[in-house]
Design brief:
Layout (H helix, E strand, L loop, with lengths): L1 E6 L5 H14 L4 E5 L13 E2 L6 H8 L3 H26 L3 E5 L4 H5 L2 H10 L4 E7 L7 H17 L4 E5 L7 H12 L1 H10 L6 H13 L7 E2 L8 H13 L8
Parallel strand pairs: 1-4, 1-5, 2-3, 2-4, 5-6, 6-7
Magnesium ion binds next to helix 1.
């Protein structure tokens, strides 16, 4: 099972990769971490497979004579070329849970062809995608709608099951957390907040965006998770069990 954590820069993908790995292994479950971010500097965990062994942004900058942004994009594309070797390294470990940390900026993974190559190579039927919603960006009704839109556009590109996570939940006061979760689970509340706020000129566009998401059936409720308090780790685990075993627990108690 390949579990991909995707999201905007700073949404907590790397921290969650670390936390969820620890959570699984503390329960005696066999899990490995994979770093697919060629631009990562310091990682809080030690990945079993690290894309930087094949490709890193600094070397790409030197070799191709491009700047940091160009190198990030080029690296994201070059991963696809080197992926057969990366995949070989992943599958040779033979661990049931493969937790995959993806590049910092969401567009480098979610919106480039290389991510399709990666998912297809590992098997979309053996993969699940978790989109991390950053509560800092999703703290206003229009910010929340924008994140749902971003999540929906990523969801469109993949066949693998897709879940939204309200990340870094420990940063929110209980009543704020409750409000954001209400927006996520009851879209009439999100709509109310959207039209009643002081959001000025963008309001109509947001309402249109909201309606489009609603009409396409693409609004999916996030659940909270924190890499600090471990809130939500069990929910991620349950999603995985539901997805791959239809509720039957694969691991020891
Ligand atoms: N309080 C809190 N901070 C977090 C959490 N997850 C990540 N962070 C912090 O947010 C920043 C970005 O996290 P990181 O995992 O590197 O984000 P990434 O860019 O998506 O990989 C770091 O300073 C983390 O320590 C969380 O669950 N709670
Ligand atoms: Mg990261």
């Amino acid at each position: 099972m390949n579990l991909f954590f995707i999201g905007t820069a700073g949404s907590g993908k790397t921290a969650l990769t670390h936390a969820f790995h620890d959570w699984l292994t503390e329960r005696g479950l066999d899990a490995i971490t994979v770093n697919l971010d060629p631009g990562a500097e310091l990682l809080p965990y030690t990945p079993e497979v690290d894309v930087r062994d094949w490709l890193d942004v600094k070397t790409v900058m030197e070799e191709y004579g491009v700047g940091p942004n160009g190198a990030q994009i080029l690296s994201a594309d070059l991963i696809a070329v080197r992926f057969p070797e990366v995949k070989e390294a992943i599958t040779s470990v033979k661990s049931p849970y493969v937790i995959i940390d993806t590049p910092g900026q969401i567009e480098l993974f979610a919106f480039r062809q290389s991510s399709k190559v990666i998912l297809e190579s590992l098997g979309e039927d053996r993969s699940a995608i978790f989109f991390l919603m950053d509560p800092v960006l999703g703290g206003t009704p229009s910010g929340f709608v924008s994140l749902l839109m971003l999540s929906a556009s990523a969801q469109f590109r993949f066949l693998a099951p897709f879940s939204n996570i309200l990340a870094k939940s420990d940063l929110l006061a209980p009543e704020r957390l409750e409000e954001l979760l209400e927006w996520g689970s009851d879209y009439s509340r999100l709509y109310e907040s959207l039209v009643s706020g002081e959001e000025g000129m963008h309001r109509e566009a947001d309402v249109e965006l909201f309606r489009a998401l609603e009409n396409m059936g693409l609004l999916s409720s996030p659940f909270p998770a924190s890499s600090k308090t471990y809130e939500g780790m069990e929910d991620i685990y349950n999603v995985v069990q539901q997805t791959f075993f239809a509720g039957e627990d694969a691991g020891p108690d």
